[in-house]
Amino acid sequence: LFQKLVDARKYMAGSQMLRQLYFSAMDMEWHTSSDPWKTIMDRVAAEYTVLQPLPEDMFPCSFMHVWGGGYAAGYYSYKWAEVLAVDAFGAFEEAGLENRDKLAEIGK
Question: Model pTM?
Answer without folding.
Answer: 0.74
